[in-house]
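Sequence and fold:
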Amino acid sequence: MIPSLFLHVLSVVIWVGGMFFAYMALRPVAAAVLEPPQRLALWAGVFGRFFPWVWASVALILLTGLHMLMTLGGAQAAHYIFTMLVLGVLMMLIFAHVFFSPYKKLRRAVRDEDWKAGGAALAQIRRLIGINLSLGVITIAVVFGGRAFAG
């Protein structure tokens, strides 16, 4: 169970930490110092490098989480574990939507130099990453709170 837990937590750190960095550090600076064409190209490039790591993290989080759930007895596991599972799957669905819809639009807009469409796509990505970051922090709180109250 220790290797699964390590991979699980490492994947969460990569994903949630990456969202925190992008949302709280990179976004405000990029908005302050870059014009729209450069800012949109930057974000398309950043997401192009970050999203493969997120896909790997999502796969590992799901696989290791299900492995640990089965090791803990499946349906007999603590309620907070099921809350974590539901929130995690919701985050994964939001990420998949970001990847297949607004990120695809952002890449196309940068390629075509359609800065208005790119700005709209980036705004949608920003909102969804903000939601996912919030859900990630809530999930972490649920886990630690659940563990503290479970014993």
Notes: The first helix runs from residue 2 to 33.
